[in-house]
Amino acid sequence: MIHLTGYFLGLIIGLSLGLIGGGGSILTIPVLVYFFGIDPVIAATYSLFIVGLTAIAGSINHYRMENIDYKTVMLFGTPSVIMVFVVRKWLINLIPPVIFQSGNLVVTKPLFIMIIFSSLMLVAGVSMLKKNSYVPAKEKQSFTKLILQGCITGAVTGFIGIGGGFIIVPSLVLFAGLPMKRAIGTSLTIIIVNCIIGLVSKPHEFGSVNFVFLSVFSAIAILGILTGTWATHFISDKKLKPIFGWLILSMSLVVFIRNIWGL
After folding, report:
1. Is the separation of the CB atoms in 158 and 92 below 8 Å?
2. In whole angstroms, what is the distance from residue 158 CA to residue 90 CA?
3. d(CA 55, CA 21)
4. In sequence order, what are the beta bridge partners of 102?
5. pLDDT at residue number 223
6. Minimal CA–CA distance to 45: which of 160, 190, 165, 155?
7. Residues of the chain with confidence (pLDDT) below 70
8. pLDDT (tens digit per residue) in 188-242
9. pLDDT at 220
10. Residue 25 pLDDT
11. What pLDDT score was predicted for residue 137?
12. For the purposes of burial, counting CB atoms within 10 Å of the CB of 111, is it exposed (0-12), middle (13-18) or buried (19 or more)?
């Protein structure tokens, strides 16, 4: 029964990516860990595969709808990809198996990753719930901030093993002045590249991958993203922003509570 619930949440993951261009990995890792019993470190690799494949399916429709800003993809995506490779290839291996230990309190590497993960989710969710008005305009674009945010997103993507959409979308809205739907299409394109680089940088991890499970889960998620992309035709940008915020905020609280409970 718990696995059926996990597969249903796979559909929600795809729906999230289709509707808001992010949240896929934020949802994928907890689902893989808590519903399928997969180790967080391995779940990070699984997440890159599932989200990357799902994002490819969703980006095709956004390409047809001309919702991809290629200039932003280059400015934001290039530094992001570089940081993903650096972190996944070298920096992640520098983290010891046990981060902190005091008596019965033990903070392991997987637990540390999940704590950082939930904290970033909380920040992203709150930022998108603020009732600021972001008007798309060329003068709002800050190329320096875009490049910096690309680096930060890439570092987070490589460290946690996520596509980065939950950071990419707010960054594109805040710093590039993109409307939500265009930010979604652009986000999916960047996510694809980030996931590919994240997977290529860790080829030795493919030996423990269950490709049958990944294929089934990905197929369900793809069905969800196609449904979500179709639904964006009927939902305004103004409504999409708080949907993104509440979804990410809710999941961050769930993951955080599970982490503290595990301590």
Report:
1. yes
2. 10
3. 8
4. 105
5. 93
6. 160
7. 1, 22-26, 128, 131-142, 161-166, 202-208, 237, 241, 244, 255, 258-263
8. 888 888 788 777 776 666 666 788 898 999 999 999 888 888 887 777 767 776 7
9. 93
10. 65
11. 46
12. middle
Asked whether 57 and 189 are in contact (CB, 8 A), the reply is: no
Q: Are β-strands 98-102 and 105-108 bridged in parallel, bridged antiparallel, or unpaired? A: antiparallel
Residue 219 main-chain phi, psi, to 5 deg: -60, -40
Within 8 A by CB and 6+ apart from 208, the residues are 42
CA distance 68 to 168: 13
Q: What is the pLDDT of residue 48?
A: 82
pLDDT of residue 219: 93
Residue 97 in contact with residue 108, Cβ under 8 Å? yes
Both tokens of 13, joined, read: 């993951």
Distance CA 100, CA 231 (A): 45
Phi-psi region of 23 (alpha: psi -120 to 50; beta: other; left: phi over 0): left
| One-letter identity of residue 249 | L
> Hunting for tokens 């030795």 — which residue is that?
204
Q: Cβ neighbours of residue 228 under 8 Å, at least 6 residues apart? A: 14, 15, 16, 17, 18, 19, 58
CA gap 257, 238 in Å, rounded:
30
Judge contact between 251 and 24, C-beta under 8 A.
Answer: no
Q: Report the DSSP beta bridge partners of residue 106.
A: 101
Torsion angle of alpha carbons 132, 136, 137, 141, nearest 10°? 80
DSSP-derived secondary structure for 145-177: HHHHHHHHHHHHHHHHT---HHHHHHHHHHHS-
